[in-house]
User: What shape does this take?
Amino acid sequence: QVQLVESGGGLVQPGGSLRLSCAASGFNFNGYIMSWYRQAPGKERELVALIGPTYITNYADSVKGRFTISRDKSKNTVYLQMNSLKPEDTAVYYCRASNNWGQGTLVIVSS
Assistant: This one.
């Protein structure tokens, strides 16, 4: 049974940082592209970043230079380091592997 469990969300001030984690189980983590999506209130879900099995990464233009995706194959975990956070980064962040999604973790950027 595939499980993706996100953690690390919370309230942070503009300019601050957070690191999200997604613990994966139930599938061959090392062979999958892992990605982070986000959905802001009233908006569609959008891709934030992805990382392939060989660590190739890709980012949405809106987060390039501020967010970093990484994966630890020994822990079956994918991370999203978010720096220089802006109010427009406020959203529920989801981890995805193929057609499987986590439950999401809420990030609020506000003073």
Remarks:
- The first strand starts at residue 3 and ends at 7.
- The CA atoms of residues 3 and 25 lie 5 Å apart.
- The chain has no helices and eleven strands.
